[in-house]
Design a protein that fits this description.
Length: about 500
């Protein structure tokens, strides 16, 4: 039976998932945004030690002093720093500082670096870790563990790839319980067709967010940028594909460059359940997903992984794909391995060998991350279809969405009981998923001005909703034409 937990303070009840993401960090301190080291003139008061201090110049910022060094923080969009309670809040409640006599709050631990996995303290369903990241949850033996396969597709969905993606999920491919196989899409905005995305969501695939603009260098940007990109993307999906916000609970950072602690703070603040942006180097035994209560149990390939703990937030890492002699190299996204000189049979065998490292060892979920590129090469696409047909014959292989996989992990069931997992069932129509895309969608030609260029261009957007005034973009997810209109308030400060 699925446990249904609310994220505290959050109105969003996760009706789909029996997934638990209690984030203790939210209850305490910093509603503060990401701390960013900058050259600032602010001097931390020496007599009071660590703490948060109002920025004399603006109420939208404050400084977090850590061992005498001032880190400049911005309040989340729309909020202001209250110098009495020392956190960001609504404008009419914020008492702007600096207020002379306010004592600094008693100090927070200065650098909250995550420690190594402590299995004695880390218990399901809230927490999961293992020393080297390879252990099966629930102490199951590999032969009792279902082999999950996670098909993920990143970027825009449009005419270039839609039919190819649909073919992957053709009706004759089913899980052992007779339900159609499912996958997960991490959507980026530009060139996306929201009518098609609505259909994918309506078919029961999971929709997560990448970002609106796929800008480079986002990993070094601040809280507001991440909110604009990621929460803005979620708003666009709501607006133009009628996908409920409570269904969008997963995130993938563009180019697999996680945004250090900042991205995870946004994730936590806005009620996401998991991230899937962290690449793991090739390892003989693949890594299972884990919560960010403890240090990441593998090398961080991107170099911009979170260093703090984010209790209860799941990371579904991207294990490197490779075969023993490294023919084709190794890659997080399958289309980044060099297989284009192979024929379909060779591609199939390559995938089979890569997969066997999971299937014959610890049955960690086999993630198959794709960009549209994979499907532009016939041999790769055919090789994938051979692979999918072959795995469909294995009795213990399940193609599930990310949240379905995490639901299993929070309450691991042995293979014999897997048929009873509600979240893996398809008999009851899921609530909260949008209706099928409409037959008379609007094909909107919209003016679009890239902020970095001073000419106006046209972008097309297809949707069952009404055409907006302008191409939706950062700060204007609804396409109202009013720049900087949007104002996203984290769940944990919403009253
Ligand atoms: C949006 O989806 C909901 C179900 O989640 C449905 O009741 C509603 O009619 C849909 N709205 C439109 C405009 O299609
Ligand atoms: C859309 O078209 C299909 C097939 O042409 C039809 O079966 C369906 O009823 C139509 N849906 C709506 C909402 O008009
Ligand atoms: C773009 O703007 C710059 C300065 O604002 C101007 O010098 C330049 O001519 C403009 N370019 C175009 C193509 O309009």
């Amino acid at each position: 039976m699925a446990v249904l937990l609310k994220k505290h303070c959050s109105k969003a009840v996760l009706t789909v998932v029996a997934l638990i993401a209690i984030t203790h960090a939210q209850q305490t301190n910093t509603r503060a945004s990401a701390a960013k080291k900058e050259d600032v003139e602010f001097t931390c008061p020496t007599e009071v030690g660590n703490g948060n201090f109002a920025d004399p110049a603006t109420c939208k910022r404050f400084y977090q002093c850590v061992d005498g060094y001032p880190y400049m923080n911005r309040c989340p969009s729309g909020l202001y720093f209250d110098d009495i309670s020392k956190y960001c809040t609504f404008k009419d409640e914020a008492r702007c500082g600096p207020i002379a006599s306010t004592p600094a709050p008693s100090t927070e631990p200065p650098v909250d670096l995550a420690t190594k996995c402590n299995t004695a303290e880390c218990e399901l369903p809230y927490c999961f870790c293992s020393k080297d990241g390879t252990l099966i949850p629930g102490g199951l033996d590999p032969e009792d563990t279902p082999q999950m396969i996670l098909l993920t597709f990143d970027g825009a969905v449009n005419l270039n790839n839609y039919d190819h993606y649909r073919k992957v999920f053709s009706k004759n491919r089913q899980n052992p319980n007779g339900c159609d196989i499912k996958g997960t899409f991490f959507i980026s905005h530009e060139y996306s067709n929201y009518n098609m995305i609505q259909q994918l969501a309506s078919d029961g695939h999971e929709i997560g967010t990448e970002t609106i603009s796929l800008q480079q260098g986002l990993q070094d940007k601040g809280y507001e940028e991440w909110v604009g990109e990621m929460i803005g993307m979620r708003e666009i999906l709501k607006h133009f594909s009628n996908i409920s916000k409570s269904e969008v609970v997963g995130m993938r950072a563009p180019f697999l460059k996680p945004g250090r602690n900042t991205q995870y703070k946004v994730l936590e603040d806005f009620g996401y359940i998991y991230d899937s942006s962290i690449g793991a180097p090739p390892s003989p035994v693949p890594i299972w997903p884990y919560t960010l209560d403890y240090k990441i149990p593998h090398e961080c390939k991107a170099g911009s992984c979170p260093t703090k703990t984010f209790p209860g937030v799941w990371e579904v890492p991207l294990n490197a794909h490779y075969v023993e002699d490294y023919e084709g190299g190794h890659c997080p996204y399958l289309d980044q391995c060099v297989l284009h000189n192979h024929d379909a049979q060779e591609v199939f065998e390559w995938l089979q060998e890569d997969f066997s490292r999971y299937y014959e060892q610890n049955k960690a979920p086999y993630m198959m991350p794709f960009h549209t590129n994979w499907f532009s090469i016939k041999e790769l696409e055919q090789g994938l279809h051979k692979f999918l047909d072959w795995t469909s014959t294995l009795p213990d292989v399940w193609f599930v969405t990310m949240t379905q996989a995490l639901t299993w992990m929070t309450d691991p069931k042995s293979l014999k009981q897997v048929n009873s997992i509600e979240a893996w069932n398809c008999v009851k129509k899921k609530e909260n998923i949008p209706p099928p895309s409409c037959n008379n969608s609007n094909k909107c030609a919209l003016s679009y001005k890239n902020p970095n260029m001073n000419f106006t261009d046209t972008r097309y957007l297809e949707t069952c909703a009404e055409c907006p005034n302008q191409y939706p973009w950062l700060g204007d997810a609804g396409g109202s034409g009013i720049p900087g209109k949007d104002n996203y308030v984290p769940d944990n400060v919403r009253k």
